[in-house]
Write a structure and sequence with these properties.
By secondary structure, the chain is α/β, with parallel strands linked by helices. It is about 30% helix and about 10% strand. It has eleven helices and eight strands. Strands 2-1-3-8-7-4-5-6 form an eight-stranded parallel beta sheet, sandwiched between helices. Helix 7 links the parallel strand 4 and strand 5. Helix 1 crosses helix 5 and helix 5 packs parallel to helix 6. It is globular, with a radius of gyration of 20 Å. The two termini are about 35 Å apart. It binds zinc ion. Zinc ion binds next to loops. This is Histone deacetylase 8.
Length: about 425
């Protein structure tokens, strides 16, 4: 990577990353659809006209040392020592069964997916890019010593650990975003905010950074907006509503459980709560897990009724555009996640790429039907880019959202107190 060249958006992908990500048992063939649709729209080309410049960069596969920054050695031994994907006795000890089976190429997959997210994080740390994307990452259920919920490697956690490391100020002279010149005042360590938009609670990431200690110096804040209901994976003990002000909670590990049918209007109503937390915490980096299993029509989840179009307030596209356009002076890492309607996941991530580049495609645009885009038939019956909302009822009442607001207001107060105390100690 030549640090004298500055690109605003680093898009991490390689043929190997696509090959092995496409073997993920929960999302077979999804990765290739995602990147070929982005390519078919010309988004990855230097000739693509957009506000921000995109550079495709290849992931550097993660080493055992890179993975060991979070994962336990015995888990890594179990994951990586059977490259042929054969079963071994300790599989169940490490969660390598049921929805996380071993598969051919598992060790290559682990190293490439984690490596892609680490490569993206390093592009931000070095000042090579202001925004970095790894749509094959975002494996937010993986634990230190255990695979869980289709996730084998905790790439989000590894990226956060890297971003929070104190470092010499990166070269910013070529950055077009002059507000970035103020990143990380010299008197404090970098702060990282993790925002998870997947329909499932980010248990793996939240647990990694959860702390019962209120007053210690904290560099990482996690927020998960997700569905919660009895029996819905995973359980989220950190965020039950209605809000009980007498229970203690960690304001650096926030959780916003939503009820079935969450639609654009619900996301529009809660968005100011997220903005407020961001304004108080003042992160230097934000890691956004953009799981798309909350979009309407997801065949596995079927719980939210969220849509894509940036023009609709509260939609996924709208939330991402708020982050890209309004969260100034913050370097951004966008990751993928869940999404079990593969063509819709491809629609969503190709579209979000266009939003990140500053020139959103029109959602009514036709899916390209040219010889280089052989996946075209999979986009039936609409053959357009949009993922529209369905007719599901949004159960998140005004009263329910008021409870969420109370919880976030209390969290905001607590955060302010802790950060002020931290500042006065510095
Ligand atoms: Zn999910």
């Amino acid at each position: 990577m030549n640090s004298s060249t500055h690109f605003q958006v680093a898009y991490v992908v390689s043929q190997d990353l696509i090959k092995y990500s496409s073997r993920l048992p929960s999302n077979p063939g999804r990765s290739i659809l995602v990147h070929s649709l982005a390519n078919a729209f010309g988004l990855l080309s230097h000739e693509h006209f957009s506000l921000r410049r995109l550079q495709v960069i290849k992931p550097k596969p993660a080493t055992i040392n890179d993975l060991g920054a979070y994962h336990a050695q015995n888990y890594l031994d179990a994951l990586l020592r059977t490259p042929d994907g054969t079963d071994s006795e300790d599989s169940s000890d490490f969660g390598l069964e049921d929805n996380c089976p071993r598969f051919p190429g598992l060790s290559e997959y682990i190293c490439l997916v984690a490596g892609a997210t680490i490569t993206a994080a390093n592009a931000l740390r070095s000042g090579y890019a202001d925004i970095a994307i790894n749509w094959d990452g975002g494996r937010h259920h993986a634990q230190k010593s255990r695979a869980s919920g289709f996730c084998y490697v905790a790439d989000c956690v590894l990226a956060i650990l890297l971003l929070k490391r104190t470092q010499p100020a990166p070269a910013l002279s070529l950055s077009s975003d002059t507000t970035l010149a103020n990143v990380t005042p010299s008197h404090r360590k970098p702060r990282v905010m993790y925002l998870d938009l997947d329909v499932h609670f980010s248990d793996g990431v939240s647990q990694a950074f959860y702390s019962a200690a209120r007053s210690s110096s904290r560099q990482v804040l996690t927020v998960s907006i997700h569905h919660a209901a009895p029996g819905f994976f995973p359980s989220s003990p950190l965020g039950q509503l209605p809000f009980d002000p007498s229970t203690s909670f960690d304001p650096f590990t926030l959780s916003l459980p939503l009820l079935a049918g969450a639609s654009n209007s619900t996301f529009a109503a809660i968005w100011p709560l997220i903005e407020r937390i961001k304004d108080i915490f003042k992160p230097d980096y934000v890691v956004v897990q953009c799981g798309v299993d909350g979009l309407a029509g997801d065949p596995k989840c079927k719980v939210f009724n969220w849509s894509l179009d940036v023009a609709a307030e509260g939609s996924l596209g709208w939330c991402v555009s708020r982050i890209v356009d309004d969260w100034k002076g913050i370097r951004k890492l966008f990751l993928g996640g869940g999404g079990y309607h593969a063509p819709n996941a491809a629609r969503a991530w190709a579209y979000l790429t266009s939003i990140i580049l500053g020139n959103p495609l029109d959602v009514s645009i036709s899916i390209p039907d040219d010889p280089s885009h052989s996946a075209f038939p999979l986009y039936a019956p609409s053959f357009t880019l949009d993922v529209p909302a369905g007719n599901m009822l949004d159960m998140n009442s005004t009263e329910y959202l008021a409870e969420a607001r109370k919880r976030f207001e209390r969290a905001s107060e607590m955060l302010q107190e802790i950060l002020q105390a931290q500042q006065s100690q510095a």
